[in-house]
């Protein structure tokens, strides 16, 4: 996975805005870049959780691995033939640094795993594949303000960036499989959020106002 471009590292407002669904640009507060070492997807999750950028990605991968192993019966049903590839992808040996192509975080197949492992609302704003993932088996807090939303977007299938949404921003459509596998006591996660389908809107005035926060290090 490539390093972030010099254009992105300079903090340009336009960097990475092209990889988001245009409909959501007015609702974006900032785009947060991370180190491009193959673990960028996990680093975005770690950033959203407030974990240290140095090794937060390890915690994310290990927690995802614990989740998929601890509830294997569930994830075999949810993931089907993708179970073994996903399990192998999130497995993180003690001294591992980078990640091979087969170990990258991928959406949508890891979306429900992330949201369930960390009890967060995961939002994929990637152009052409925007969707929202909710936890499958936890009771949500009654206040929307206490529900952590982690949004991210993918650039050309080679690099993930974290997206910080504005307060009360709408969310893209709920990932269809959630309704099929969610426990009854977890269905309240859907309450209070505004989901909407992608619809073209004018975005020219918003593209130049999105700052890029660079967490990438040389």
How would you summarize the topology of this molecule?
Blueprint: H1 6-9, E1 28-33, H2 40-49, H3 56-70, H4 72-79, H5 83-90, H6 111-118, E2 121-124, E3 131-133, E4 149-155, E5 159-165, E6 171-172, H7 177-181, E7 195-196, H8 204-207, E8 212-214
Parallel strand pairs: 1-8, 2-4, 6-7
Antiparallel strand pairs: 1-5, 2-3, 4-5
Protein name: OTU domain-containing protein
| SSE succession | HEHHHHHEEEEEHEHE
Domain count: 1
The CATH C-level name is Alpha Beta
Number of helical elements? 8
Largest sheet, if any? 6 strands, mixed
Structural description of this entry:
This protein is an alpha/beta fold and 218 residues long. It has one domain: Alpha-Beta Complex (Cathepsin B, Chain A). It is 28% helix and 16% strand. It has eight helices and eight strands, in the order αβαααααβββββαβαβ. It has helices at residues 6-9, 40-49, 56-70, 72-79, 83-90, 111-118, 177-181, 204-207, and strands at 28-33, 121-124, 131-133, 149-155, 159-165, 171-172, 195-196, 212-214. It has a six-stranded mixed beta sheet. Strands 6-7 form a two-stranded parallel ribbon. Strand 2 (121-124) and strand 3 form a beta hairpin. Helix 2 (40-49) packs across helix 3 (56-70) and helix 3 (56-70) crosses helix 6 (111-118). The longest helix has 15 residues, at 56-70. The protein starts with 5 loop residues before the first helix and ends with a strand. Residues 1-13 and 200-209 have low confidence and may be disordered.
């Amino acid at each position: 996975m490539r390093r972030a471009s010099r254009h992105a590292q300079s903090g340009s407002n336009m960097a990475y805005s092209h990889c988001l669904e245009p409909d959501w640009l007015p609702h974006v507060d900032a785009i947060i870049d991370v180190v491009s070492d193959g673990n960028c997807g996990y680093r975005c999750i770690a950033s959203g959780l407030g974990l240290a950028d140095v090794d937060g990605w390890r915690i994310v991968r290990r927690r995802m691995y614990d989740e998929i192993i601890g509830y294997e019966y569930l994830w075999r049903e949810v993931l089907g033939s993708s179970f073994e590839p996903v399990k192998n992808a999130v497995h993180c040996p003690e001294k591992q640094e980078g990640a091979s192509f087969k170990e990258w975080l991928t959406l949508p197949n890891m979306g429900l795993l992330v949201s369930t492992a960390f009890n967060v609302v995961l939002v994929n704003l990637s152009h052409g594949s925007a969707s929202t993932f909710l936890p499958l088996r936890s009771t949500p807090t009654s206040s929307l303000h206490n529900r952590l939303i982690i949004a991210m977007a993918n650039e050309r299938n080679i690099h993930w960036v974290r997206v910080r949404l504005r307060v009360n921003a709408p969310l893209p459509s709920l990932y269809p499989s959630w309704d099929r596998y969610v426990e009854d006591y977890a269905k309240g996660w859907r309450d209070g959020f505004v989901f909407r389908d992608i619809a073209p809107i004018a975005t020219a005035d918003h593209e130049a106002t999105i700052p890029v926060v660079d967490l990438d290090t040389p």
